[in-house]
């Protein structure tokens, strides 16, 4: 069982209550493992030549990344604290949250982390971890990432950087109707009673390449477990908004490797999967990289970010198998996925996706994060009174072909160093409409995010 250390006396009292017992297997808990125990030292560089030292500390997909040129700098562990408003909401509301009778849906959720206590013996531990991911502390109210770009390349050890295509995007944004902790309306937008939407997300407009200019997608997630996401896209050639079939959200379009169900590691609808908790494990992850904007890896063809700091983290390992009856009846592109979730940040640091046909490892998603009071040192507006997590890089790679799309959040070429606006009221519900997406395609929201 993983016990969060964020709540103070109320949790201590709960543990001390009669009938509440804790049991830890093995000689030491995951949190007690140190770099010395795994024969690593701070500052040590890991490359393909000594990758065997960390083979059991990264996911299989990440190991293939290292063997194809990605390097890692071992760094000391740092505790990731939640934003105080999120911590307070967890203390206030989490005791009333439970799963529905079938174990798939949330009941009684208001704000904060739904399930602060994860018991490995709980048959629904995997479901609870993934609901924590859905309402993670990184952004509880709204977010707007302005001006980011994504290169598509092929990986290869010491391969020169040869860009196939570079996508430049104006906005990647989201708005939560439930779980709000910092920006009015709190903690639930009254619109939720009318629409039943948990949250809204968008990615628009595409600014480059020119033949894709204006392309975008918006998406609504519903609390109703049987209602699929609504999603629309703007097609620049036809100059019209088109509703997307839910089954296509597992599929990348164009010369890039991302699909909408795996933005930020995992963004599928939880009720569409059978989750199985595989256990806790200490693993390496890039939870606080040294440089923002993050760097292009010079030793793998630019297929990842490197060299960056990776530190030993406590991870929840969860298997996700798509339910056959979902995805429009057509089935998912993947047979199953294995997600590696940082237990403090509730964020997917790696996701290995396995081919529906062969069952072989197909795709790997990796996150690079930064923990600070601003997304990057040059920020002058989006500054917070506490540290919080920012995702500053990501990459999805087809490990069978070596085709990779690596994204920079934000781009080094962004016109402003203020890029991530999290829980600042930077967007509202009016952004998340087909009409707003079409207007942006015709020259609405500019590069600066206005």
List the helices and strands and how they pair.
Blueprint: E1 2-3, H1 9-16, E2 45-46, H2 60-67, E3 72-75, H3 84-93, E4 98-99, E5 106-107, E6 117-118, H4 125-134, E7 142-154, E8 165-176, H5 191-195, E9 197-208, E10 216-222, E11 230-235, E12 240-243, E13 273-285, E14 308-322, E15 334-342, E16 347-355, E17 361-374, E18 383-398, E19 403-408, E20 420-422, H6 434-441
Parallel strand pairs: 3-14
Antiparallel strand pairs: 1-6, 2-3, 4-5, 7-8, 7-19, 7-20, 8-9, 9-10, 10-11, 11-12, 13-14, 14-15, 15-16, 16-17, 17-18, 18-19
What does this entry look like structurally?
With 450 residues, the protein is mostly beta strands. It has a domain at 142-441: outer membrane lipoprotein receptor (LolB), chain A (Clam), CATH 2.50.20. The protein contains six helices and 20 strands. The strands form three sheets. The protein has a 16-stranded mixed sheet that branches. A two-stranded antiparallel sheet has the order 1-6. It is globular.
CATH architecture of the domain at 142-441: Clam
Proportion of residues in β-strands:
25-35%
- Overall structural class, as computed from helix and strand content, comes to mainly beta
User: CATH topology of the domain at 142-441, which one?
Assistant: outer membrane lipoprotein receptor (LolB), chain A
CATH class of the domain at 142-441: Mainly Beta
């Amino acid at each position: 069982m993983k016990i969060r250390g964020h709540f103070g006396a109320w949790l201590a009292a709960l543990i001390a209550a009669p009938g509440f017992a804790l049991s830890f297997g093995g000689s030491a808990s995951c949190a007690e493992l140190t770099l010395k125990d795994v024969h690593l030292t701070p500052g040590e560089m890991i490359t393909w030549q000594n990758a065997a030292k960390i083979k059991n500390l990264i996911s299989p997909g990440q190991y293939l990344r290292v063997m194809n040129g990605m390097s890692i700098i071992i760094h000391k562990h740092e505790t990731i604290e939640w934003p105080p408003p999120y911590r307070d909401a967890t203390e206030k509301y989490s005791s009333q949250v439970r799963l529905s009778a079938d174990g798939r849906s949330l009941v009684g959720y208001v704000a904060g982390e739904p399930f602060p206590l994860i018991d490995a013996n709980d048959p629904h531990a995997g479901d609870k971890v993934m609901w924590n991911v859905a309402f993670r502390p990184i952004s509880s109210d709204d977010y707007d990432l302005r001006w980011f770009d994504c290169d598509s390349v092929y990986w290869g050890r010491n391969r020169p950087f040869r860009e196939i295509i570079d996508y430049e995007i104006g906005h990647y944004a989201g708005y939560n109707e439930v779980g709000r902790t910092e920006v009015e309306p709190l903690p639930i937008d009254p619109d939720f009673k009318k629409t039943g939407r948990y949250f809204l997300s968008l990615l628009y407009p595409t600014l480059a390449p020119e033949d894709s200019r204006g392309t975008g997608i918006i998406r609504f997630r519903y609390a109703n477990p049987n209602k699929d996401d609504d999603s629309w896209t703007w097609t620049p050639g036809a100059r019209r908004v088109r509703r997307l079939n839910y089954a296509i959200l597992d599929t990348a379009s164009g010369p890039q490797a991302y699909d909408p169900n795996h933005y930020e590691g995992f963004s599928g609808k939880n009720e569409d999967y059978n989750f199985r908790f595989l256990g806790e494990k200490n693993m390496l992850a890039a939870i606080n990289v040294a440089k923002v904007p993050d760097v292009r890896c010079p030793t793998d063809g630019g297929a990842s970010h490197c060299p960056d700091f990776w530190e030993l983290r406590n991870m929840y390992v969860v298997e996700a198998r798509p339910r056959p009856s979902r995805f429009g009846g057509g089935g998912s592109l993947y047979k199953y996925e294995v997600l590696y979730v940082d237990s403090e940040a509730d964020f997917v640091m790696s996701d290995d996706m396995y081919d529906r046909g062969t069952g072989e490892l197909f795709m790997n998603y990796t996150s690079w994060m930064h923990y600070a009071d601003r997304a990057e040192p040059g920020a002058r507006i989006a500054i917070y009174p506490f540290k919080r997590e920012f995702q500053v890089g990501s990459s999805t790679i087809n490990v069978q072909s070596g085709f990779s799309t690596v994204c920079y959040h934000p781009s080094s070429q962004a016109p402003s160093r203020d890029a991530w606006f999290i829980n600042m009221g930077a967007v509202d519900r009016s952004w998340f409409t087909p009409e707003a997406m079409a207007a942006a395609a015709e020259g609405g929201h500019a590069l600066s995010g206005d």
